[in-house]
Design brief:
Layout lengths: L2 H4 L11 E3 L2 E3 L6 E6 L4 E7 L3 H17 L7 H17 L1 H12 L3 H19 L1 H4 L3 E4 L7 E8 L2 E5 L5 H15 L2 E6 L5 H13 L6 E5 L2 H9 L5 E5 L2 H13 L3 E5 L4 E5 L5 H11 L11 E7 L3 H13 L19 H16 L3 E4 L16 E4 L6 H4 L6 E7 L2 H9 L6 E5 L3 H10 L4 E4 L17 E2 L4 H6 L2 E8 L26
Parallel strand pairs: 7-8, 7-10, 8-9, 10-11, 12-13, 12-17, 13-16, 15-16, 17-18
Antiparallel strand pairs: 1-2, 3-4, 5-6, 6-20, 11-19, 14-15
């Protein structure tokens, strides 16, 4: 089976090659990766698999582009033009991106079509930083010198490792701030969902990004580790499991490399006693089936007063059991399959453990009737869950919810915080003051009110073992910048510096050399 025969009719135009140094290059071996449609269990895409020599070539291209190429020496305004061109191309090809997302991962196609164009806006958001972000600040030196500057420069070569559950979104939140900062990149796509990286490489080629600024390869874990270990890579930005994040942190710590980790979650919804449980159930049922529960920020632990535990479990089960599970391309489907066979087996294993450890299976837990092919599972609700049990402590990454009883508000907060994770949470109450008070006590990177809420326009990331650093917003660009202090005895004539006696000003277009 050839790449051309498998990918006929798909938007990926160069599946048998890598995009390195501004060119589509042949791989060093004939190794390939089969990408399986989770609804049909059939191979629908076949791409080249990177080996050590391919990864080395990609890193070399990115290193050369940063050290000697024009990209980090352009003004931020010049780089912003490229980011806006990327945004326009993503919008133009949004239907292709959406089709790939559904075909690779099983996300309901209507949701994919709705969500994909929004990721174009990420590039426009960071392009605007050229106009308003303080890349150079003027300070008054404490030693009496004429000029003190705090300059924010690109961190260097970035290795961006993205997972399979939301490739385009995570590519955007890693590459857009890195590009406006002046970094060059090696994008390592997931073997399970490489198509979006290929389309982004086609866009990079079309808009004329300088050679080596954006490089894209697909590789397994062993070759991905080479990207992390390579000392020519200044920064790793990774989204994925906490287990892999620990390994990356160890490697980067040993070589004092920079890294950002967005990892797992076991997020709690804390339901206070003044809030209607039916409304809670409706809210959670709207978000629980998103991407078949394969979302790190999903609210999977529902903590409620013991007096209302049974009522909430019942109405939540009714809401979730009403969701139609089926072909993600069918407009009637509210939830598609899990992304791959091993994920289905993993989720089924957790369901078995939940029952064995004494939790009450209220609904779901099985393959839906009539769906004999595809990696499908019913939305699942457990009640009477002990917070120390496996299903309450480990990230399942599937549509499995645990309802946990608490004696009072204090214990509910303690239960919510009793986890190694701290990515997301929510407080359900009619009182915004109570919501804020509880939110301040929850050890989570984001806390929503009366719904699962996240906002990458502000920032996203986790406490504890849910990660290090933030993505999105102003926090998201800082991870791709190094700060440099420059102290001058006399006033320079450079037009790029903020005006004297004007305090902190935005950069008028500062370059790598300042």
């Amino acid at each position: 089976m050839t790449s051309a025969s498998v990918t006929a009719g798909l938007p990926v135009r160069h599946p048998g090659k890598f995009y390195i140094g501004g060119e589509w290059v042949s791989p060093s071996t004939e190794s390939v990766i089969d990408v399986v449609n989770p609804a049909s269990e059939e191979v629908f895409l076949q791409v080249a698999a990177a080996e050590a020599a391919d990864m080395d070539r990609a890193v070399t291209a990115a290193r050369d582009a940063f050290d000697t190429g024009p990209w980090p020496r352009m003004t931020h305004a010049e780089r912003a033009g490229y980011l806006r061109a990327i945004a326009a191309e993503i919008r133009e090809r949004s239907a292709e991106f959406a089709r790939l997302w559904t075909s690779e991962m099983g996300v309901v196609h209507a949701a994919a079509l709705h969500g994909t164009p929004r990721f174009a806006a990420v590039y426009e958001y960071y392009a605007d930083f050229a106009d308003h972000y303080d890349f150079i600040e003027r300070h008054e030196p404490t030693g009496g010198e004429a000029v003190g500057l705090l300059v924010r420069e690109p961190v260097g070569v970035v290795g961006a490792i993205v997972p399979w559950n939301a490739p385009l979104a995570l590519i955007a939140y890693k590459t857009a701030p890195a590009l406006i900062a002046g970094c060059t990149l090696v994008l390592k796509a997931s073997p399970e969902a490489p198509g979006e990286a290929y389309l982004m490489a086609e866009i990079a080629e079309k808009i004329g990004l300088p050679p080596g600024v954006f490089n894209a390869v697909t590789a397994d874990r062993e070759v991905s580790e080479q990207l992390v270990q390579d000392s020519r890579v200044d920064k790793i930005t990774f989204t994925g499991s906490t287990a892999v994040g620990r390994q990356i942190a160890t490697v980067m710590g040993n070589r004092i490399g920079r890294y950002t980790l967005e990892l797992g979650g076991k997020s709690a919804a804390v339901v206070l006693d003044d809030y209607d449980v039916s409304t809670v159930a409706e809210s959670i049922a709207r978000t629980a089936p998103m991407s078949t529960g394969q979302v790190c920020a999903s609210l999977t632990r529902i903590v409620v007063n013991r007096r209302r535990h049974d009522e909430l479990a019942e109405v939540l089960a009714a809401s979730l059991s009403a969701i139609k599970v089926g072909d993600p391309f069918d407009p009637a489907s509210g939830m598609g399959p899990l992304a791959m066979r091993r994920q289905l087996e993993c989720v089924e294993g957790y369901i078995t453990q939940g029952k064995a450890q004494g939790a009450t299976l209220v609904t779901g837990g099985r393959r839906p009737t009539g769906l004999d092919r595809g990696y499908y599972i019913e939305p699942t609700v457990f009640a009477n869950v002990d917070n120390s049990s496996t299903i309450a402590q480990e990230e399942i990454f599937g549509p499995v919810l645990s309802v946990i009883a608490a004696d009072d508000e204090e214990q509910a907060i303690d239960i919510a915080n009793d986890t190694i994770y701290g990515l997301n949470a929510s407080v359900f109450t009619n009182d915004p003051d109570r919501a804020l008070a509880v939110a301040r006590r929850l050890r989570a990177g984001t806390v929503g009110h009366n719904a699962k809420r996240t906002d990458f326009g502000i920032a996203f990331g986790g406490f504890k073992q849910s990660g290090i650093g933030r993505e999105g917003g102003k926090e998201g660009i800082s991870a791709f910048l190094e700060t440099k202090t420059i102290i001058l005895e006399a006033e320079p004539s450079s037009p790029l510096l903020p005006a004297a006696n004007a305090g902190s000003h935005r950069d008028a277009g500062g370059t790598l050399s300042g």
